[in-house]
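Comment thread on ticket #2218

A.B. wrote:
> Attaching the input chain for the structure job we discussed in standup.
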Amino acid sequence: MQSFNDITLIGRLTKNPEAKSFESKGKSSIVTHFILAVNRRFKKNNKTETDFIKVTLFGVKADNANFFLKKGMLILVQGELHTQASKSKTGTNYYSEVIADRFEFMEAKTKTEEEEEVPNG
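C.D. wrote:
> Ran it. Output below, let me know if you need it in another format.
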């Protein structure tokens, strides 16, 4: 039986991405994590509810995310949903994260953002 694990989210970064270097099979690589705030389609009691989803990228994509993404940016993320379990004294806790294959900007840069990137001189 075949299975399919694909997720696409659009949301805003809750803070700047955090990058870490690590060693794998004798090679240096990078992993980047950030939290994406995603509004639900349906309102509860006339209020919008928001999910906060951990997103992880590896390698060149992680490096690009760390360089280009900033808090508050609206982006699209595609990848796979991974769920892990951890045991504690109170029982088993489950948490999910998206292992992203790609991300895409969903808003054009503002004039001030463009000016900040151009060095004077």
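A.B. wrote:
> Thanks. Noting for the ticket: The longest helix spans residues 59-68.
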